Structure to design on (335 residues):
């Protein structure tokens, strides 16, 4: 498989990323975790750049409102993890750019999501702490907040915390019918409400976990899980569908951060990158029980990466935080 960097732009401390496509428009959106801009790049117009906002920043999550070019974003998640002033905003597409509305204050919320059910949305927000005396204070654990997102009034209603505490939340993965949430206490499955039951959390893994994604990387017909183990590493681990360990790395992935899983060409792969050490962006799969790793780019320090398809070709969008670079790589010879 070959990777060719076809686009590069500079964005200081670039972090959050999203593919945003609807109504014949097609963008990738990249936001900084510092007081820096958020940019949208037009995939239908040679990556023409539009500034969504010029300052504020501190963005950890970007969430599209289904069927629209509108999206929700967190802001002010700084300095470091001492993010009492974190808020969520709505960006409404006006035909050429975006207009901002403040949804509300959400102190310490690191990851959030909206889950569509019928014509309504649930809200899920995971906070890294409930309060902090300083950046390194983890004595008051975070929470999982749930409620109802009302897009008509642009507000979260019925917001409340589940009877659960979670320290150093970093990872979140929407699995379609449930979500995965990670932290010091491990990996949890969050089941959504039904007519017969309320929100439900079930522990799947007890190991301290920073992030998690899924893909069938060994071709056995069931998804495997790639995790970054420890807060920001230094290990990676691959579990089978029943959370039995298939592979665990040595402590060689300092500040593991960028993580994605899914299909490239005809096979499934993981994409992984770390922000310290060699700062590489890598492609991972397994064959005959052996892990195979291919370099995508080196010494770029990616914070987040995702794969998208455009006009029959697949690309990797990577926020190369440590090199302050927004990068897009064309994938060729995928099989």
């Amino acid at each position: 498989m070959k990777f060719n960097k076809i686009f590069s732009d500079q964005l200081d401390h670039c972090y959050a990323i999203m593919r945003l496509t609807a109504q014949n428009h097609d963008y990738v959106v990249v936001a900084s975790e510092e007081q820096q801009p958020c940019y949208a790049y037009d995939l239908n117009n040679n990556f023409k750049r539009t500034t969504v906002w010029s300052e504020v920043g501190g963005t950890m999550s970007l969430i599209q409102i289904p069927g629209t070019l509108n999206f929700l974003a967190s802001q002010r998640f700084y300095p470091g993890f001492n993010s009492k002033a974190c808020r969520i905003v709505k960006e409404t597409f006006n035909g050429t750019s975006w207009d901002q509305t403040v949804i509300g204050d959400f102190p310490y919320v690191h990851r959030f999501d909206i889950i569509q059910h019928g014509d309504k949305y649930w809200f899920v927000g995971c906070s890294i702490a409930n309060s902090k005396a300083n950046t390194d204070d983890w004595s008051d654990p975070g929470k999982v907040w749930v409620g109802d997102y009302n897009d008509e009034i642009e507000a979260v209603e019925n917001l409340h915390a589940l009877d659960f505490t979670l320290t150093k939340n970093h990872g979140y993965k929407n699995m379609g019918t449930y979500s995965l949430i990670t932290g010091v206490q491990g990996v949890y499955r969050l089941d959504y409400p039904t007519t017969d039951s309320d929100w439900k959390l079930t522990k799947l893994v007890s190991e301290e976990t920073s992030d998690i994604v899924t893909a069938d990387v060994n071709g056995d017909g069931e998804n495997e899980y790639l995790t970054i183990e420890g807060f920001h590493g230094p290990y990676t681990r691959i579990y089978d569908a029943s959370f039995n360990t298939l592979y665990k790395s040595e402590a060689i992935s300092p500040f593991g951060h960028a993580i994605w899983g899914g299909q490239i060409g005809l096979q499934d792969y993981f994409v992984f990158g770390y922000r310290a050490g060699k700062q590489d962006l890598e492609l991972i799969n397994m064959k005959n029980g052996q892990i195979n790793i291919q370099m995508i780019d080196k010494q770029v320090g990616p914070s987040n990466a995702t794969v998208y398809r455009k006009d029959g070709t697949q690309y990797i969008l990577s926020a190369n935080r440590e090199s302050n670079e927004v990068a897009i790589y064309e994938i060729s010879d995928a099989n």
Q: What stands out?
A: The mean pLDDT is 96. Residues 210-335 form one domain. Residues 145 and 179 are 13 Å apart (CA to CA). The chain is about 0% helix and 55% strand.
